[in-house]
Design goal:
- It is a single chain.
- This protein is mainly β.
- It has a single domain, classed as 3 Solenoid (Pectate Lyase C-like).
- About 10% of the residues lie in helices and about 35% in strands.
- The protein contains 2 helices and 17 strands.
- A 6-stranded parallel beta sheet has the order 3-4-7-10-13-16, with helices on one face. A 5-stranded parallel beta sheet has the order 5-8-11-14-17, with no helix packed on it. It has a 4-stranded parallel beta sheet with strand order 6-9-12-15.
- Strand 3, helix 2 and strand 4 form a beta-alpha-beta unit.
- The protein is globular and about 45 Å long.
- The relative contact order is 0.12.
């Protein structure tokens, strides 16, 4: 009987993959999981063995999906824009986070210092950025201009302007109703 119980347990584990903090991700959700690495490519399959680059993953992740970043320094020379059409939903946020608590740094030191050279522009809604560092952008580390986003346990340091700025991205949005709303920033570290 114990052998049968063991086989059933192994079969159960085989139908899932282990995610961050040891939580199981059901096999049905695997299509909503994309892996990235500093050396991933736009042609990567998005698996741990064949990861994508971050920018491609951001464009492809569906609502409710998670982008897991393998550890390392990701180097960028231009702004990463998550546009206003790239949204999750209230019940299905889009998450981007390090895999298994690995150390991840987004380094924008290849940018020129310029007020338009932000590291990240988050103009989409219902995103969850969790647990990594954004550094050395030519302006803000992140401009948060979307709605209903969560910025959690992020580190912003050595950016040319504020690490995190909450403001409108499209300066033609004159009505306050068009400005960012209902965003949650928790456990953020800002180093000057």
């Amino acid at each position: 009987m114990n052998r049968l119980k063991y086989l059933l347990t192994v079969a159960s584990v085989a139908t899932s993959i282990i995610g961050t903090f040891g939580t199981a991700i059901p096999a049905t959700a695997q299509s909503q999981t994309i892996f990235c690495s500093p050396y991933g490519t736009s042609n990567g399959a998005g698996t741990k063995e064949n990861p994508m680059d971050v920018e491609t993953a951001i464009k492809q992740i569906p609502a409710g999906g998670t982008i897991y970043m393998l550890g390392g320094a990701y180097t960028f020379d231009k702004t990463i824009v998550i546009d206003s059409a790239n949204n999750g939903t209230a019940g299905s946020v889009k998450t981007i986070r390090p895999y298994n608590g690995e150390s991840v740094v987004w380094n924008f030191s290849n940018m020129k210092v310029d007020p338009s050279n932000r590291g990240v522009v988050l103009d989409g809604d219902y995103w969850h950025f969790y647990g990594f560092e954004i550094t050395k952008a030519g302006d803000n580390g992140m401009l948060l201009s979307g709605n209903n986003n969560k910025i959690e346990r992020m580190i912003f340091n050595d950016n040319q302007d504020t690490g995190l700025q909450i403001s409108r991205y499209n300066t033609k949005d004159a009505s306050i109703a068009d400005w960012p709303s209902y965003n949650l920033v928790i456990n953020k570290q800002l180093h000057l």
